[in-house]
Structures are given as C-alpha cells and as structure tokens.
Give the backbone structure.
Amino acid sequence: MAVVTLDGGMHTVGSAREPFSIQSVSKVHTLTLALEAVGDALWERVGREPSGNPFNSLIQLEYENGIPRNPFINAGALVVADVLVSHLRDPERVVLDFMRARGGNPQIGRDSAVDDRTRRDSHRNRALAHFIRSFGNLVNDVDRVLALYSFHCALRMDCVDLARSVLFLADRGRCPSSDDPVTSAEFATRINAVMLTCGTYDAAGEFAFYVGLPAKSGVGGGIVAVVPGLMGLCVWSPALDDKGNSLLGAYALHRFTRMTGLSVF
Amino acid sequence: MAVVTLDGGMHTVGSAREPFSIQSVSKVHTLTLALEAVGDALWERVGREPSGNPFNSLIQLEYENGIPRNPFINAGALVVADVLVSHLRDPERVVLDFMRARGGNPQIGRDSAVDDRTRRDSHRNRALAHFIRSFGNLVNDVDRVLALYSFHCALRMDCVDLARSVLFLADRGRCPSSDDPVTSAEFATRINAVMLTCGTYDAAGEFAFYVGLPAKSGVGGGIVAVVPGLMGLCVWSPALDDKGNSLLGAYALHRFTRMTGLSVF
Amino acid sequence: MAVVTLDGGMHTVGSAREPFSIQSVSKVHTLTLALEAVGDALWERVGREPSGNPFNSLIQLEYENGIPRNPFINAGALVVADVLVSHLRDPERVVLDFMRARGGNPQIGRDSAVDDRTRRDSHRNRALAHFIRSFGNLVNDVDRVLALYSFHCALRMDCVDLARSVLFLADRGRCPSSDDPVTSAEFATRINAVMLTCGTYDAAGEFAFYVGLPAKSGVGGGIVAVVPGLMGLCVWSPALDDKGNSLLGAYALHRFTRMTGLSVF
Amino acid sequence: MAVVTLDGGMHTVGSAREPFSIQSVSKVHTLTLALEAVGDALWERVGREPSGNPFNSLIQLEYENGIPRNPFINAGALVVADVLVSHLRDPERVVLDFMRARGGNPQIGRDSAVDDRTRRDSHRNRALAHFIRSFGNLVNDVDRVLALYSFHCALRMDCVDLARSVLFLADRGRCPSSDDPVTSAEFATRINAVMLTCGTYDAAGEFAFYVGLPAKSGVGGGIVAVVPGLMGLCVWSPALDDKGNSLLGAYALHRFTRMTGLSVF
C-alpha cells in the first residue's frame, strides 16, 4: 500500500514498489485523456451510470443503442480508446508519457507478454467492439482500438507510481508538485464521481458502503483511491473476490477509512 | 430550498416552509429505523447496489431470489417496511414520532388522501410485495406492509423539516442539538453511501457526477442531501425529469455544490 | 394413457380412469371459452408467441406493457380468466359444465383442498395479476380472477375424460359424436397451433421435436395431445422433468408418434 | 409462388423463376448437412427452443454459456457453419453442390456482391461469433466461419429451386424422384419441427397460428414451407413485415392453407 499526500508526504507498507499489471486501473487515465481530447462531448458516446448487473454489459448495449453504460466497463473503455485513436497521432505514446509524468517514474513500461496474450485471446472484448461498431459508436478499425486497449491494460506500475498518478484528482485537477493543470477542476470532480459509482465493477455500492472513496480496481489486484483535497492511495494484493476486486486491497482501504475517518461520507 | 448547518444555522430561499408529500424521501428514515431494529442483519434481506436499469427491479428480484437490489427501490423499501412491522409494536406511530423528532416539528402529519389513493391504486407495489413474499423475503401480511409503506410515503413535511431530519447523517449519527445518538457513526456513514449510489433512482451516477452529495429524492419533488460534517439540505420543486427526480431541485443542488465547492468529490 | 378416435374408438393402458388434478391442462378449455366469448379480440390482450425463457414472464410483461406472451403461461391464463369473469354470469359453473360435456362425464368435479391451497399460497400468481392490472390489462378484482383460475386448475379428471375433452380440436371444432360445433374450424386450428408452440412451458421446441403433436401439459402430470383429423390423447404420470412436463408422459407420446408415424411433421 | 408435389407435379404463379438472395432460408440446408456430419451430437452445441425475444440472442447466449437457442437464429447458424468447417474439406463446395442437387438446378450460384458486402459489414455477426468463441462453442477461426456463413446466405435461387430443395423434408428424408435418402426420416421430422417452432424469427407462434406449416424465411423475401407427405412450397415477395418475414409471402401461405385445409393443425 502507498499513500501520497498533496504536500509531498509518502507512506508505504509492504511491496509498495513491486510493479504489477495495472489492467483496468488504467481506465481512469484514458478517461482523463479522452475528456481532454473531446470534452463533455464524450458523454454523448458513453454514459455515467453504474451497470447494475454483470449481464447488463450486452443487453444494455442492445437497448441503449450501443452507448456503454459508463467508461469503466469494458465496452465503455473501448469507446474511450476509440476516441483516443481518432484524436491522437500516437495514442500509445501519449498514454505512456502521461503515465510516466503522472506517476513521476520514467521507467514505467508495458508487459509485452500480457499485451500480446490479451490481444490474441480476448474474444469477448472483440465481440463487444464489433457489437458497438454495429451501432456506429466505434469508428476506427476494431483491431486498432483493441491494440490500444490491451496496451494500456498491460502497463506495469507499482503502488507508489499509481498513488501519485491520481494525485491530480485529489487536487482539483492540478499536479500538486508543479501546480500545472492536468485537467479542469470540474473534470476532476466528475472523474471522482464516476470512480465512486462505477469504479469497482458490480460492487460499487458495496465499495462505497465499505470504503467510501472514489476508487478504481483492476484484475491485476491493484486499486487506486482518492481522498479529495488530501491524498492519493494505491493498494495491491493479487487475490480477487468474486466481483473481481482485490480482497485484501478492499479490506485495507476499509480499515484505512475507518481508522482515519477519511471516507467522503 | 433549506440549508441547516450542524451549528444551528438555517438559510432558506423560496417556499421552504410549504409542506409537500415527501414520498420516497421517507425511505432514508425507515432505513435508519430498520438498521436500529435489526442491525447489519438487514443486509441479508436487501442489497446495497445500484439497480442499473428500470426494468431490473423485477428481473433482478427473480434472478437474485427475491433480494431487492437496495433499500431505496420500491422492492427494497417494502422489505424495510416488513422489518418494521415485525419489530415495532406500532410502526406508523414510531415512524411519525421519528419524523417529528428529527424534523423538530410536532405538526408533521400524513396526507390521508394521498395515503388512501396510494394504498388503493398501487397494483405494481402489490405485485412486488407478493413476488417477494413468494421467495419468503416478506413475512407479514402484504396488506399490512403496504399500509405502512403508503403511510410513510404520504407524510407531509417542508424543506426545513426535511433538511433538519437528515442532520444526524451529517453529524456521524448524532443529533447536533442534543448530541444524543440517533444511530451509530458507522450506520450514518453507510446510509450516506447508499444514498449516493442508490438515492436518485436510475440517475445515481448522473447525480453523483452533477451534484456529488449523498441525496434521496421523491416523486413529490423533494430531494434531501447531506454534506458530511457540515449540513443537511432540502430542495423542493414539483416538476420531475424523466428519471423521476426534481428537475430544478437537482439544478439547485448542482449550483450549490459548484458555488461552494462542497461536493464530496 | 387413453386414445380416443373421432369414430368413437377408445384404447387405454394403465390407470387411465384414475382421476388427477388437471392443473394447466385446463387452460386449453378456458382459452376455447374465451375465444367463444370475445373472438379474435382476445389477441389484443394476450399474444401467441412462445415465452422463450422462464424469466421472461415478468420482464416480458414489463416490456410488452402487460400483454402476456401467450394464453398458456400463467400471466396469459389470468387474462383469459379475467375475460371469462367479465363475460359469463357464473364462470365456474360454465367451465365445469363445459368440462363435463366435453369429457362426457357428469361426475367431473374440483378438488377443493387443491383449490383452497392454490388460492391461499399463490403469491406469485397474485403478483402477476396485480402487475398486469397495473397496466390495465386485467379489469376485474384480482381475488375474483384468482378464484376462477384456481378453480379450473383444481378440476379432477382422468385420462379418458381429458382425451375426449380435446376431440373437438381434432375434428375442426365439432363434437364428433353429436356433430355440434364447439368452436369454429378456424379457432380449432389456431388453438392447436398455440398448443404446439406454447403448450409445454419452456420446452415447446423440444416437445415439437420429440413428439410432434399439439399438446398441453399440467404440473399434475397430465398431458393432452391432438392428432388433427384423427384422435385425442391423454397421458398421466406424476413425475415431472425439470421443465415441469410429465417425464414418462412425454416419453409415451414420443414412442406413440414414432411407432404410428402420426406426428404432424 | 411455387408448389412442387412429391409425385412430380409443379404449379407456379408470378415470378416463380426469378432468382433472389435466399439469405436465412439456407439455414435449413446447412442444418441438414450438419446433422449428417455429426448427428444428434449437434444438439450439445445448439438448442431447439424458440428464442422468444429479439434481444434474447445475446442475453440468452450469456446465460446459457454460449449455446445458441436454436440453429435458425444467427448465433445458431454460426455454430452450424463452424461444424461444417470442421467436418468438410471444402464446405462452400459441398453446400453449393447440395443446393444444386436438391433444387435440381446446376445453375444455382452465389451473388458475389451480396457475399462481399455481408462479409465486410456484418459487425453484429462478427460480435456473435467472437462471443460464442469466448465460451469455446466455436472452434474455427472467426473469419473462416463468417466466410461460409455469408457464402450460403448469398446463394441465389428461385421459388421452384427452393420448393424442390425441401421436398426431402416432405418425403421422410428421401429424394422423391430418385428415392435416395438425403437424411433419415427421424432427422427430417425433427428439422420440420424446428422449422415450425423457430423458422420465422420472433413470429414463429404467429406463423404457426396464421399458416400452420413448417417454414423458414429469409430477409431476401423468400419463405420455404413443407406439407409433410405431400409437397414443398416457396413464396417470394421482397417487402418484409416488422419481424423480418415476407409480408405478402406469409399472406399467400395463409390463404393457401385456408383454401386447401393443408395446415398441419
């Protein structure tokens, strides 16, 4: 676990500098980049409601004409990737540079074995991409979009990198060390809100109840969280619960908010 | 609109003392009473996840064996009412006394015409109750449970009453004037979390994004909201958006959090 | 098993004169009476498509505005019962007389214990009825409709009675002994079609494949079937498969059509 | 419209020799070939129940672990095509030869423009194929399976060809002119049953009710039908109803069965 405060303090426990596959945690960062690229127009192509049920991903796409429920389910992250492919010259480069700058670590890279395996095996994501494309809500070549998606999911970072990487969301969109704007205060607030209601798969309600912080988890076992106005956090522990969130990671965040009183509620 | 702070300050604008039918706003208060009655055992009978889609109420009940998704959808509020019928001698009296004590207004009463009409016409709630009962998750007579449900939905309160009535949720479960505990700090935190993720029908994600406060709306046009550690709020404006939330009420809360920076995010 | 031919022949094997609870088999007869009462206008209130999935009963009602998928699922049979309550002075009497006349047995009666139990315990049917009523597609008092529904499901008949009772469907709507019309040739054809596509719960496709005759099953273990132009059949064996159809009954009908070549296909 | 009887009679009206794109009508023929290839083992990979609702295709696949509901919905036809790719050396050749032999017309060919367009544009079928593959119920390369699928849908035949092509289904699996077996009597019966319950998209119940024959429609406006023991039929008229069946074609078949009494019911 790593805790990084806006005033530069850093506290770690355990394997906080052990890199792991960040997987879906990266969707926070691609969402930020997509909002910078197209602004609120993004919300015409992806919603911001919890998905409710696992099965909703597909049935909901069908009923809602190919508009994914939120940017953190796979369908939504594919639309976000499609936006980046459309608006950036070299989106993999931009994502990597963003991660290195936000994480303050120029060594951040991708795990090419994970990337290749994801790209090759992901029939379900490919199904989602073609389905969304059949509604016209994905405009680039499906292979191109999946390549970017699997690239950003295959990045390797450690808890300190990731805790730092969300500090701008705790600081109203600014980088706390340089005071440079990363995104607007309004977008930072909105990203936090989407993290709280949609960031932990089908357990967002449970997570709000149990932890009470904007957070985003990945199947690699990492979870980032934000205490607005104060700090960024990251926990990592590979064993997942049945919803796909790190079991011990969620428990650590629960204990943290209960001991500190830092839940947003 | 009424804003009531923990230190006793009160600010109102418009028809803040005009009583209206509180409808589903009352589900916050019956949830509080049910948690006091049975504690965390309540969560074995009702979940705490957003419902996702309007249609989920029924299909979800079927798939999840009669366990409503959360205490704020009608199915969940019926289970909460069933708990109160089981554990309280005169639940209508207890609910009314709780509302009068929390709202600081002994004049609070019910609108008997609304109550009668609701009880008579509500074939959909009756369908839900029988359906839940077919799974064994409702144990009292359906008519008895519906009577309590329609009673608490038919209470009439004004914005000041309602803003005061949620102050204990801003004050870690205590009544700020008397410092008496209403519920535990832990339950207060959890009720706020459920309000944020489930309090505004199928628009909880949108509402978190747009307002960023724990809130509960009713079809009477009222919305209560909580700023943890600071204040309770209530807005009222009868015109509803297509999700059933007060259109101007949501806008007023949006402007409030944007002008004050008091969103939890 | 009982086989009764249009020319008056009768062949039985096993306990063909042992009365049993006919349950949903009675829906064929109430459908016939409802078509006589209101003609094709019935199809504005109930469809004639297979329901597809068990869970569809409810979700489908919601999406299709309270119009049950077909007259043989419970929701549809409740609408049929509602039509009979609206159009007949004493519908229980009319149904009983119809069964006695068609079955050629004045001793046919109901099992009052089954009737009472069904009426008391059926929270799911009550849920369906209130739900349909919330859409305005059930106009009589829910208790009244459920009383008729549980009455016709609680009738007791034996295989010979039931095989005779569907002879008019094999004879283009006429009673083969008296040559009197029971319903029109067109309605007889249509009822057979609905039996084939919707008569055996969620296994209609399987049943068409395996047996190949218009048929209607009940959870009492009875199944009636029709060979158009030739005969009526009834099998009875209480053990049910996982779809709710008599396991040995279906097997007997399968063997029958394979040995005789009398499948409609 | 073309009517071809088992004894060699042929009756046509209108543009019965005008070739059209047979589209989904071809699924009857690929099903026959797949049953010949793997026998009843096919039913472990595809069901034989009506799909119920349009949206079911996807949600049903998810709940039923990638087993399509029946071989006539697109998902099921893709699994059938996958079987043919696995078991035939040159499946396009085999399908084409089968069509020419059954239709008695060596000129039958494919419309390459339709084929190319289908293959290129069909993001929804591609989504289905990847989704089924994610469950392991499609084993060949998705592009290869889609190539065969679009090939057989792009065949061009006229009403006479198609009426002849289903004669074996009216003659217990034999070719009526040569008396050679095309498939077993049992498989012919079963294919007819699946046509009746699943052959006309979400209107199978309506079609059984209105026409009363085993039939398979295509979006090109063609419908084949079988009168067991007597004849094969084909109608063609391009305008479709809202379920995707030829509007005038269905009406012509309705009039035909009503005038001749040849409905199976």
